[in-house]
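Much of what follows relies on a compact textual record of a protein's fold. A record is reproduced here so that you can trace the correspondence yourselves:

. . .
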Amino acid sequence: MVAAFDIGNSYIHVGVYRDGRLAKRIVSPVQSKYIERDLMKMLGSKKIVGAAIASVIPRITPRVVRFLKRHYRIEPVIVSSKADCHLKFDYRKPMTLGADRIANAVGGLARYRKDLLILSFGTATTLDVVLKDGHYLGGLITPGMGLFMDGLVSRTALLKKVALQLPQRVIGQSTEECIQSGIVNGAVVMFQGLIQAIRRECKKRLLCVATGGWGQFMANQIKQIAYFDQDLGIFGVFKIYEYNA
């Protein structure tokens, strides 16, 4: 079995693959003080023979590498632009490109084989354009839904956190509804506009695929998004393992 680690800003997602298929999905909070113990409980005595890691938190990566070396005697593949990703980077400094974005691009190409716009709705929201011939064109980064809320609440005296959900009306009739409408409807309109602008700039239709913690929610609101793919990142990490192993 092969373990694919997608270490994000909030969670570590692990996919365990058997014979090329996802056999188990594991999620662990990044902030846990006992990451190694948590991983041992989740992976246990599984016969892991290979692994790859895509990480956006440098301080966590060595801990996972040590865990794999200690318990499974594995030297994992580290996802970066230097690894064999089957991508051609039309990007000024590929070494600065986040491993999560590379994994999403690789997973998207391997799964859909089309010109893609990948929208990853996590702690940060990233949009990435990758063409079916393997050219990665770039994209954009914006705060995630939770960060919009945190920024609003932390910089105002009277506004409090509310549950982020789509209100029935655009015009809120309470402070709670006003915040919900501003953040949720604002995000929906923003991403609808960005999809249109990116398609115009590329002069391509681009299949839109969403992933990430807010991916399903946003895919339900944005008609241009064709698919929500929960496991896109870990699938991309697994494919990069295959390309390099």
Observations:
- Residues 6 and 54 are 5 Å apart (CA to CA).
- The longest strand covers residues 21-29.
- The chain is about 40% helix and 25% strand.
- The first helix runs from residue 35 to 43.
